Write the structure tokens for this entry.
Amino acid sequence: MLITLVFRLSGIGLCVLASLSVYAQQSKDSVTQLHEVIVEQSRLGNYAISKYTIRVDSMTRALASSGSLADLLRKYGYGHVRGYGPGGLATASFRGTGSSHTSVLWNGINILSPLSGQLDLSLVPVGFIDDASIQTGGTTSLYGNGSIGGTILLYSKAHFNEGLTLKTFASVGSFGSYYQDAAITWSGKKFISSTKFFTNQSDNDFTFTNTNTSQKERRDHSATKQYGILQQHYWHPAENHLLTLKLWWQENTYEVPNPTTVPKKAEAIEQNTFWRMLGGWNYTTQNFELNYQGAFINHDLAYHPSKNFVSLSTFNTLINNLEGNFILKKNINLSSGINYTWEQGKVEEFGNDVPIRNRIAFFSALKWKPFSQWEFALAMREELVNGEAAPFAPSVTVKTILMEGLQVYGTLSRNYRLATFNDLYWKGGDATGNPQLKSELSNSGEVGLKFSKSNLKNTKSILLSAAVFSNDVDDWILWYQDIVWSPLNIKKVWSRGVEVQGAGHIALGSMSIELSTQYSFTLATNKSIYTNTSINEINKQLPYTPFHELSITARCIYKGFHLNVVNSLTGKQYTTTDNDEFHSLKAFDLTNISLSKPLHFKTLYITLNGEVNNVFNIEYRYRPGYPMLGINFKTGVTINFNKPNSL
Amino acid sequence: MKLKLNFLRKFTVLAVMASMIFIQSCTNDPESLKPGESGFFIVNEGAFNGSNTSLSYYDRKTDAVTNNIIFTLGHPLGDQSQSMSVFEGKGYIVVQNSSKIEVIDVNNFTLLTTITEGLPSPRYFLGISSSKAYVSDWGSNGVTGTVKVIDLTTNEVTKTISTGVGTNKMLQVGTLVYVTNAGGFDNENFVSVKDNTVKVIDTNTDEVIATITTGDNPNSLQQDKDGNIWVTSSGATEYDEDYNIDEEKSTKGSISKINSSNTEILRLTVENFTFSNASNLCISNDGTNLYYNYDDAVYKLSTSATSLPTSAFKSKGYYGLSIDPFNGNIIGCEAPNFSSAGNIDVYDEAGTLLKTKAVGIAPNGCAFK
């Protein structure tokens, strides 16, 4: 299915543009298109009438399908992914905010851990995601908790009446990496059943130069292993009704290496096991749509610092989301809804406490287009957490079309992040949580423009978008050491910067060339003084936040061959809060090349592909003491079989 | 501004180098300088597993600190420098989490050698003679404390003396070395293990010849002008399953006085259970006043006292504490966090703050040339 779509897009060579136009189409016909392609999702994204969105198109996903979402974001320079070595914990940060300021929604359901406020993106296999986009900035306030820097939206897609599809993909790569997935989908007129399975492992025993000893060494105790299953079912019991059920189970085992400055043999192992269940019901009429989703998430983290000891932490989350979407007039859309979330945390270091949090959120959004050139959107969310009000989160956006293909917009918004369970309830050792913590609060604004143009035959196109943003985060929670470590709402950060993206394509006979680029400049400076010594940190760039990030992707499609070159530059990063140059991480520039060739035999599609990553064998780090892979290779084959339903 | 800072930093380095050349050229016999007269090193521990430990140097003539001293080899120091000792013109930087000792020439900061073998978790270095030194070590599991005997001619570990749990600071008195056992954390079974002994080693035989019982988890020690040895012990805190302090099973911090017959003749117990317990014992240059950390403050105790002081000398907690042997100033090493530079506060004996200097991340002590 995915590959079929890839072929279609390859044929016209319009990945970025096509996906953006599809998105625009979705906004326009959000209610009426339901029977064509099933994207059973919340419609709240439609109220971000103009926003800076990074769209992870299907071609990009196909080329990264043996990796995790963290690998994909890093490779293409989407946002800034913080983390340790390959396979370790990886979190995304956008617009200079923290790792827990990015919410991640799977089919509209927030899957962040209430314990840490984060989602480890190395636990999201790209092969399980059919559609992904990243929305940066304040327009995400409708999504509520945690959407201060941006929101990663992950979706499943399905098509009715496509018959039986079998697909398998296997790849083998350097440093003992193996990946395999298999999917079987039966798609009838009223029912779709799909089962996907994947397994992924890597020894990550690469060689690197240990800067501490100036010796070449082989990385030890850095292996990873993952496997999981995703089942998805769609049922049309009647024309206006759609029922969905999804089950996602996954187990992940990581060896946790020591930093290279520590010669002691590492023993720590981290095991994450989770299952996520999502049931949905959509009811659609001409001018009204009702969307209900109920989800349950269970996530166990077993951390084995040594062979004889394990520390367990578990969270359970129950989410109910009911949303009504109304077309009030031809030019007015309204969505309102209620969300009830129940969260429970069981952590050894919480002692006898098993904290539970009940959250009820009310949200509403209005979109109004009084004239053809002007559009307004107003959104708000208010949440009660254990009966107490979280900060009110409104946003307002104005968009106008200056000329054909050129639009400008401005947005003001207020977002928040609740304190995590670890912040509130931690007890172990010399660190104590603080039950009095307030939510973090951000006030942000941005102005941006978008320009797109293509010729009539769609053989040439160009797309440019840019945004200037400013985001003031207050009451940022910081673990502060007095006699013991304890979190306080004492940090203030002003983050501002520029984001630019451009894409263009040209079709020359049977050849199609496509270029796309992303650039961001981020100044995220600390504005808080909480002790006489923290004066060294005032106005300093936040650690692990590069000022500059740039990626350029070039694609060429010719006679079925598909060449993809990605170059991504990550600027210098400070590792200390006072921006000590000595301990900063130097900038690095990575180049990855991949080549694929599809073969087609009746209903059987076979794609061969090979890739070379870090072509120039650059030594780089996302964190001191944690080297990343040098030059590495991967080759794979995809086999796709489709037997259409008899008509 | 950044440019200016860079300029200042470069200027400081040049100034330090120039002054060192000046000292070297004008002083016929550098060995005749008193300890600390030309300056001292500050050990910056850095964040655990953060690979950002560093060394700073304070030059007394220029009154300037040079941070991130780079050795001629050019590699960073490693992870978690616990201490540095200056012995016979060489600086021994004990880098605990990197399981090594970097040996530098204290006059020109060049790296002489690195001792990497046989030191799983080293803490402190004590020079015994031109050919011998002791290094306290926690052991790879955190609770197998030993004293490693190092042959300074080959820089190899020649003997391991079993001492207790969490072997920490050491003190040489004549031919004896007193060794504190501060208790530790068993990193294989994840439990705290306490100890309450100070071991006495005969430096002629490198054998333990006596065991002195003190309060739980003795961590640092000093000898006063009368020959008594004073020891701070942090006590042992036990928790119930809900992480409340189990007062029945816990012991409070204490300060012990041991006479020359190796007998504990006085034990003063602190008032509160606290995470910041009695530690970092220092003594004034005349050997009459003790300074130590307790409950996020610095206390001063006369060696003739029979009870603990009730008010603090400085109501500010320090991560490390040292006494300048040159002028008797008290140096508090402040670590506001483990992600940015700390500083040293220098007080005179009356407690007046003389200066504050920015150093590296998490300074934990000083070493005097």
About this structure: Confidence is low (pLDDT under 50) at residues 1-37 of chain A. The helical segments of chain A are 2-12, 15-28, 58-63, 69-76, 421-425. The longest helix of chain A spans residues 15-28.
